[in-house]
Amino acid sequence: MRFFNRLFKRTKSKEGNEAQGGTAAPIPQERERQVFCSGCFTVLPESNIHLIPCYNDTLRNYVTTYRCESCWLDGIDETRERIELAESSSDIELAAEFFKRHAVFIHEYLRGDPPEDVKRALLRLIDLLKTGGLKLRIGKTEQMQ
Ligand SMILES: [Zn+2]
User: How many angstroms separate the alpha carbon of residue 73 from the centre of ligand 1?
Assistant: First the structure.
């Protein structure tokens, strides 16, 4: 029996970390997430990525877009111009809903103020994104099944 245990333990220790007790090299738990820039199609660490709203013609809505340092300003300028030129209240509403999905609430929108007032608030939010006064974040990583 003793021989069997020795043999068994030796075999097990060769198999993997579990059998090595506390001596196994730690597996890094907090590896930075990698994000795909939809402007230039490169992959970068999350800390180098900006989350911005961009209008998607297919979905006819503002979507979250991940952009790298060299792509994000063009993207945000495009969005700002679109909001600035928006004439229908539904276009303004779509942009306000985008921010709401990111837990940024515009009181003027929620209480039903005129679209022009909501637009002013939206443009301010865009400017804050641009200057770093507002930073949108990617949600939690879902556990893989
Ligand atoms: Zn890019």
Answer: 10
Domain range enclosing 57: 34-131
Query: Mind listing the pLDDT tens digit for each residue in 63-116?
Result: 999 999 999 999 999 999 999 999 999 999 999 999 999 999 999 999 999 999
- Distance, CA 127 to ligand 1 centroid (Å)? 20
- Ligand 1 centroid – CA 74 distance (Å): 10
| pTM > 0.85 | no
Structure tokens belonging to residue 1: 């029996």
In a domain, 139, yes or no: no
In a domain, 38, yes or no: yes
Using the mean position of ligand 1's atoms as its centre, give its distance from the Cα of residue 44 in Å.
Answer: 9
Ligand 1 centroid distance, CA of 51 (Å)? 12
The residue written with tokens 């989350």 in the block is 51
- When divided into structural domains, the chain yields a total of 1
In a domain, residue 103? The reply is: yes
- CA distances for 74 relative to 54, 68, 79, 130, angstroms: 10, 11, 9, 11
